[in-house]
Amino acid sequence: MGTGKRGLMATAVAVVCAVTVLAAPGTAFANPAPSPTPSAGPALAPAKDLEAVRKKLDKLYRAAARATDKYNAADEKADKQSTQVVELAKKIVKGQEKLRKLKDRAGAAAAAQYRGGGLPPEAHLVLSDDPQDFLDGAGRVREGHHATKGLLGELSRTQEDLEQYAKDASAQLKKLEAGRKAKAAAQKKIEKQIAQAEKLESALQKEEQERLAELETEAANKAQTAWLDSGILNEINGKASEQGKKAVKYATAQIGKPYQWGAEGPRTYDCSGLTSQAWISAGRGIPRTSQEQWKQLRHIDVQDMRPGDLIIYFGDASHVAMYIGDGAIVHAPRPGRTVTIAGAGSMPILGVVRPDAGTGSN
Predict the structure, then answer these.
(1) What are the helix (H) ranges across the chain?
(2) Distance spanning both ends of the chain, measured CA to CA
(3) Which of 3, 183, 253, 290 fits a disulfide with 320 by CB distance 3.0 to 4.6 angstroms?
């Protein structure tokens, strides 16, 4: 985003956050009228209990996010290993065909010797009475020796190659099976954590669920305010590269689409599925998971970040979002939520990574 829109976006983000809080039931303004007589329905949970629920939900969804990263990593490895197995199978087929042709050539040479009375070429040469035939034959014998030696060597090398391809394929298949088990274990953990979170939320009354949503918003706003109060935004003025602009355009176009663990679009996304696909759309392939994005991409100081850069969150790098400028991010938050814009400081920042090496533009 350009600098002219900077203050406008910051104001817009603040207004959205404020409207979210003010519009929530029970938090607008005090009612001057007498309080109604409490109904005989179930008592609402105290605020401190709901805060405990919020923290528990956050813990469960964080665990699901870590498991999702493991699932995505195993899935990515499985894809690579499957490709390698297919390539090795192609090499084995080609090697077998080559070996067959070499054996045919060797068989033809043996048959030719048989037709010559079973005598080796040297014997026929010695028995020749014509000096010119002797000289010509000597050259053919040398060529024949070289050809036979070369044929046998090629046969041996092809056989060795086939054996190595078979060993490599077997090793890749074992890795593929191990990866399948890792994926299944990660999926089981994801589903368990999400099921526990959904059960916890469904046990709440409607008013409690609404208040819980308020608490989540309040916690995010508090963190964002503290981040902005540090003055960090005054130092962040990087301009997006051309690829960065394309990545931001893609990511923001997904706003409103549901979160789905393991998803890479186009209808649903998880956090790293959104960022990786955004950069693929910009012509830059990046690692699939937030943890690998943190490990493999170039680290940037927070004050040097620019739109399109990725912000990695939490100490275990279990969440990632795309910085879009003016202190805001676009991300896929968690199950039950949609791709949305939020404050860049609304979660604990681990660091920032840059997918592209392009220079910024005005």
Answers:
(1) 6-23, 47-115, 121-126, 131-202, 206-229, 242-253, 271-281, 290-296
(2) 9
(3) 290
Structure tokens at 241: 């590269």
Residues 6+ apart with CB under 8 A from 284: 243, 247, 355, 356
Q: Bridge-partner residues for 322, per DSSP?
A: 310, 330
Q: What are phi and psi of 109, to 5 degrees?
A: -65, -40
Average pLDDT over residues 313-341: 95
Helix axis angle, 47-115 to 271-281, nearest 10° = 50
For residue 1, the surrounding DSSP H or E stretch is none
Residue 104 and residue 62: Cα distance in Å, rounded?
63
Q: pLDDT, tens digit, for every residue of 157-207? A: 777 777 777 777 777 777 777 877 887 888 888 888 888 888 888 888 888
Query: Which one-letter DSSP state was computed for residue 112?
Result: H
Instruction: Kindly report the backbone phi and psi dihedral angles of residue 189, in degrees, each rounded to the nearest multiple of 5, phi listed first.
Output: -70, -40
Which is it for strands 310-313 and 298-300: parallel, antiparallel or unpaired? unpaired
Q: Distance between CA 277 and CA 186 in Å, rounded?
A: 22
**Closest C-alpha among 254, 255, 259, 322 to residue 286:** 322
| pLDDT exceeds cutoff 80 at 93 | no
Read off the pLDDT of each residue in 54-58 and give the average, rounded to a whole number: 82
Burial class of residue 282 (count of CB atoms within 10 Å of its CB; 0-12, 13-18, 19+): buried
Beta-bridge partners for 264: 269
Residue 322: CB atoms within 10 A of its CB come to 26
Dihedral of the alpha carbons of 110, 113, 117, 123, in degrees to the nearest 10:
-140
Q: Please indicate, yes or no, whether the overall pTM of this predicted structure exceeds 0.70.
A: no
Cα angle 247, 348, 246 (rounded to 5 degrees) comes to 5
Q: Which amino acid is at 113?
A: Q
Any idea which residues carry the catalytic annotation? Answer: 271, 319, 331
* pLDDT at residue 37, as a whole number: 45
On the question of a cis peptide bond just before residue 258, with omega within 30 degrees of 0, the verdict is no
